[in-house]
What we know:
The protein has helices at residues 3-10, 27-36, 47-56, 92-102, 116-125, 149-158, 182-185; strands spanning 17-21, 39-43, 60-61, 77-83, 103-111, 162-169, 188-194. The chain is α/β, with parallel strands linked by helices. The protein has a single domain, classed as Vaccinia Virus protein VP39 (Rossmann fold, 3-Layer(aba) Sandwich). The chain has a seven-stranded mixed sheet, sandwiched between helices. The model has no long low-confidence stretch (mean pLDDT 90).
Amino acid sequence: xxxxxxxxxxxxxxxxRVLDLGCGDGELLDHLFHESGCTGTGVEIEDRAVVRAIxxxxxxxxxxxxxxxxxxxxxxxxVVVLSRTLQALRRPADVLAxxxxxxxxxxxxxxxxxxWKHRASLVVRGRMPVSRELPYPWFETPNIHLSTLxxxxxxxxxxxxxxxxxxxxxxxxxxxANERLANLRAGAAVYxxxx
Length: 195
């Protein structure tokens, strides 16, 4: 499993009903089902990923996260996961508002555009960064809303989410031991939010 997914899984309580938005091939849900006794559903829009998730035995539905979350009932999940998905959405603020209706908690993992190497790439080279966390050139990236950690935390507050936990990851997806200069040092972050 991707290192950041391992961190995400560690924030999902045993036995939770989980909705994984942008679940890809269902790797996280498969892990949560077998290791944590969770139940739940994945949401994915890419056909090939849906097929791979189904082959894993993960229940998945095809919905556009930006426009079709109204199809899901109020308070139908304990935890909603957005793993490397929020920054790829057209309307991230609206999606966060919808998730408050659907689940009591949310786990969000995102790349941090404020990482010092990303800043240096812009300043020194005058070019958009390409890194382990942001692996695509600007014209092919699925990431349409790049943010720094303070930007993201401001959005969470504006959508009335409380940050229960913030875990910082280095560029390889491993946890950083301390939070000093977090916005400069973290390649990504994982948040546990509650309403």
